[in-house]
Amino acid sequence: MALTSAANVAAMAPNLTASESVLSALIARAGVALARHCGYPPASAGAMPSMESATYTLFGDSYQVRRHSGRVLVVEPYPVTSITSIHDDPDEVYGSSTLVASTDYYKRGDHDEVIVLGINAIHGGWSTSDRAVKIVFVAGFSAVPSDLEAAAIEYVLHLLNLRDRRGVANVSSPDGLNTSFRDETIPAHVAQLLEPYLLPSRYVP
Q1: I want to staple 152 with a disulfide (CB 3.0 to 4.6 A). Which of 3, 97, 107, 205 is the partner?
Q2: What is the pTM of this model?
Q3: Average predicted confidence (pLDDT) for the chain
Q4: Where are the extended beta strands (E) located within the chain?
């Protein structure tokens, strides 16, 4: 599922002449650009970044899986909709004996991104060595929030406008007025709509 549809883009620009296939291609391109801007990683090797619902396999300690205390992991991307499995194995084998029981942890946080070991869990705390924790989970948006879809629509319209002025810094109209264009990868009004969706690792240099 894409962040928006060709019909919804066309509804915002009644005089639009682009075909549905062109709009669909730009929607796909916009989805990648917005995901990359917000810090969403590819769900698998060779895939493109996406904010849509996908299954991720990640390891701690990385930017996406951070151990905040003995019992607490913070994962991204989010929202986290389900956890398939968590292994805690300093030997990095991830066999059945190192599978953490689903009853031993729970999710919390605004986006269910905080994974907490229960007080009575067999594990006293998450292992601290690199890649000891392997987590497979589903994250991203299966239902796109309205402001995120608005950002996608606005960015697609921006890409459409670029077709007529690619490589042009300014134009002169017949009445002698000059118009200058800003060189923007993500227009400011789109970036503002995306602010609530920037992942914490987006700020890591």
Answers
A1: 3
A2: 0.84
A3: 87
A4: 54-59, 65-67, 72-75, 80-88, 105-108, 114-117, 133-139, 170-172, 178-180
